[in-house]
Amino acid sequence: MKESSTSEVCIDDVDAEVVKEMLHFMYTGTSPRLDAMAPNLIAAADKYDLHRLKVMCEQALCLALTAENACMTLVLADLYNADQLRQHSINFINVHANEVMQSDGWQDLVHQHSQLLAEVFKALATQQIPPIVHTQPPKKRSKQTSSLDGNSR
């Protein structure tokens, strides 16, 4: 192996800043720039099987969901098998559907990720909605008349 003779490992497919943050996490168990780097770190965490870092990235991405980034976040969750993030993104999209549908990410979801769009609609269709109870209109109350002595009849 080249690594054993040169004492170097070449990682070409991950950005240098992401590798630095990943190594920082591996040595300290913390990630100071997690919030800013979560979309890129989740990819590295998945690739290098850093489960705890991946979970931390999922949590950071869940907290950062907006109408603008929800669809892109759902795509990330699908790509990296991040189940907690996937479910949270789907719920967010359904709760904020009007705003999300105005985003560029929605158009990307519709045109490029139809299987995820189907999953969003399935979740919406199967969510627990309390049944609408139809009741009859209230009965009219009988008119009460009062007598001159102040007693009602």
Major beta sheet summary: none
Query: Could you list the spans in which at least 5 consecutive residues all have pLDDT below 50?
Result: none
Based on DSSP secondary structure assignment, what is the total number of beta strands?
0
Question: Helical proportion?
Answer: 55-70%
- Straight-line N-to-C gap: 103 Å
Number of helices: 9
What is the helix/strand order? HHHHHHHHH
CATH topology title of the largest domain: Potassium Channel Kv1.1, Chain A
Q: What is the fourth-level CATH superfamily of the largest domain?
A: Potassium Channel Kv1.1, Chain A
Query: What is the residue-averaged pLDDT?
Result: 87
Share in β-strands: under 5%
**Structural class category:** mainly alpha
What is the global morphology? elongated
Radius of gyration: 27 Å
**CATH class category name of the largest domain:** Alpha Beta
How many domains, as an integer?
A: 2
CATH architecture of the largest domain: 2-Layer Sandwich
Protein name: BTB domain-containing protein
Subcellular location: Nucleus
Family: Belongs to the Tdpoz family.
Keywords: Nucleus, Ubl conjugation pathway
